[in-house]
Design brief:
Blueprint (H helix, E strand, L loop, with lengths): L1 H8 L5 E3 L20 E2 L13 H8 L4 H9 L6 E4 L4 E4 L4 H15 L3 E3 L4 E4 L7 E3 L10 E3 L14 H8 L5 E6 L3 E3 L2 H4 L5 E8 L5 E9 L3 E3 L1 H6 L1 H4 L8 E5 L4 H7 L7 H8 L4 H9 L11 H12 L1 E2 L2 E4 L7 E5 L18 E3 L13 H19 L1
Parallel strand pairs: 1-5, 8-18
Antiparallel strand pairs: 2-4, 3-4, 6-7, 9-17, 10-13, 10-16, 11-12, 11-14, 12-13, 14-15
Length: about 375
């Protein structure tokens, strides 16, 4: 919709084609329906890509966050509110995602773009006059085509991965798509009994040179979630055939800080951990180590070492990551090096452009992927209409 708006505003005759009755179905699911439409701040280094980080940065900074917000509050007509505690921006009204989707459609139409819903595209033939082949009826005559199909996440909204198929048919390589911003599943019955417990942690994924994330961690009835898990899970999800260790430092405290908590002294070890850790997490850790009844004053050195390991580098018993049906976004896609960073036109087939989730980039939770959609949509729309 952003691409259609800016192409139309630049003077092009624009038709937006969508397989659903109306575009933007995924918007309705965002933030549980409330629609976290933008972040309060955005750092390109927080985005994930297998492509050039410089290219990603150049694309993302082509339309500053403040200007994106002004566009939504001005031409689109959405009143926004800030949630400073979480760093998120939401629509101020009660309409949530539906208000956002409807406002974008109205803005697009005011700009002059037309919409055709319930229309399934089956191919793009760049050398033909009727380049856009649809399931029924004559093909669509188009000087240029923008592929803004999303990835493979939430396929019930129409994100079938078709954009990836089109890219490959046109000769593009593809960073193999993988689910991102997903929960992790597994854990013991004792862990499942902690469902609902949330606490800050440092999460490290990998062995030799692990990557780490800091944020809130949530125990669930089937595994683990929370912002830190969602933001990190792609590092586990994309390595399907390799056992990747995921380790937690509870409360993100250093080993020295925990040593002071466990220092020899009067009283039971359980009381010291209960005072430091929320819920029954301390009891669960002590039970796993067979130290529930241990005394701080008589704790053996090897047991203290094992407990410190459990507090600072606890390996989560994870079976799998969530799949595309529950992924908030799709990682992978068309490499950024295969599109012009100023217009997002294909370097292989210049009459075709790509934007949004079909490109090899995604951001953390908190509105960053909406930002990527708006920024890349604008680039592609202007580029297609003036190129």
């Amino acid at each position: 919709m952003a691409a259609a708006y800016f192409a139309a505003k630049s003077g092009a005759d624009v038709l937006l084609v969508d397989v659903q009755p109306s575009p933007g179905e995924k918007i309705l699911l965002s933030g549980g329906g409330r629609c976290n439409i933008l972040p309060l701040s955005a750092d390109p280094s927080g985005y994930i890509t297998d492509s050039s980080a410089h290219s990603l940065r150049k694309i993302l900074l082509s339309w500053p966050l403040e200007e994106v917000r002004a566009f939504l509050e001005g031409p689109v007509g959405i009143r926004l509110i800030e949630q400073k505690r979480t760093g998120k921006i939401f629509p101020a009204g009660s309409g949530g995602g539906e208000e956002v989707r409807d406002s974008l459609i109205k803005a697009m139409r005011r700009a002059g773009a037309r919409l055709r819903g319930r229309c399934r595209v089956v191919d793009i033939l760049p050398d033909e006059r009727r380049r856009v082949v649809v399931e029924s009826g004559p093909g669509i005559v188009a000087a240029r085509v923008i592929v803004a199909t999303g990835g493979m996440s939430y396929p019930r909204t129409g994100s079938s991965g078709f954009g990836f198929e089109i890219a490959q048919r046109l000769g593009h390589t593809l960073v193999a798509p993988y689910p991102a911003l997903v929960p992790l599943y597994g854990g013991t019955p004792a862990h499942h009994g902690l469902a609902g417990l949330s606490l800050p942690v440092r999460l490290a994924i990998g062995d030799a040179r692990p990557t780490s994330w800091v944020g809130d961690f949530l125990f669930t009835h089937r595994g683990y979630s929370g912002p830190v898990v969602l933001n990190a899970a792609h590092a586990f999800a994309r390595r399907r055939d390799v056992r990747v260790p995921v380790r937690v430092s509870w409360l993100d405290r250093s080993e020295e800080e925990w040593r002071s908590v466990l220092a020899p002294g009067p009283g039971m070890l359980r009381a010291a951990l209960d005072a430091a850790l929320p819920g029954r997490l301390g009891d669960v850790l002590l039970d796993e180590l067979g130290l529930r009844d241990a005394d701080r004053s008589t704790l053996r050195r090897e047991d203290r070492t094992r407990l410190l390991q459990a507090l600072t580098a606890y390996e989560l018993p994870i079976d799998r990551a969530g799949g595309f049906a529950e992924a908030e976004v799709t990682g992978g896609g068309v490499p950024l090096g295969e599109v012009n960073p100023q217009t997002l036109a294909s370097r292989l087939v210049p009459c075709v452009s790509f934007c949004g989730e079909v490109l090899d980039a995604f951001g953390p939770i908190g509105g960053h992927n909406f930002l990527w959609a708006f920024v890349t949509g604008r680039l592609a729309g202007i580029g297609a209409s003036t190129g």
